Amino acid sequence: MHGFLLGAGLFLTLLMAMSLYRAALGPTVLDQLIGANAIGSKTVVLLIIIGHLFARVDMFVDIALAYAMLNFIAVLAASRYFHKRKGLDSVDEEITPHIHWD
């Protein structure tokens, strides 16, 4: 059973690395927020797996629930900030420059 949980944890870590790529290099702010939220969600599952591996599920469930709530509030706050200030679907000027048709 430990081998399966260890493999699942390593697989989740690989998925988190792929989400980190989206969070770091996403073309829009919305893509970056979704990548960060995906990392947080996978971290909650990884904490539960670590709790099973160390036979302390009760302690790690509390930590995972607190982290999930913090992740949810952080994503809501960031999305509200970017919605009011910059716009969630804005693209950096360097990536897609404006084309002037004269």
Structure classification: mainly alpha
Largest sheet: none
- In CATH, the architecture is Orthogonal Bundle
Radius of gyration: 18 Å
Shape, please?
Answer: elongated
CATH topology: Helix Hairpins
What is the straight-line distance between the termini?
A: 67 Å
User: Which percent range fits the helix content?
Assistant: over 70%
Mean pLDDT: 84
Can you identify the CATH class? Mainly Alpha
Q: What's the number of extended β-strand segments? A: 0
The total number of structural domains is 1
Report the β-strand fraction as a percent range. under 5%
The gist of it:
Helix content is 76%, strand content 0%.
What would you note in describing this structure?
It is a single chain. It is elongated and about 60 Å long. It is 76% helix and 0% strand. It has three helices and no strands. Helix 1 (2-25) packs antiparallel against helix 2 (29-53) and helix 2 packs antiparallel against helix 3 (57-85). The chain has one domain: Helix Hairpins (Orthogonal Bundle), CATH 1.10.287. It has helices at residues 2-25, 29-53, 57-85. It starts with a helix and ends in a 17-residue tail after the last helix. By secondary structure, the chain is mainly alpha-helical.
Give short descriptive properties of this protein.
102 residues; 76% helix; mainly alpha; Helix Hairpins; 0% strand; single chain
Secondary-structure topology with pairs:
Elements: H1 2-25, H2 29-53, H3 57-85
Helix pairs in contact: 1-2, 2-3
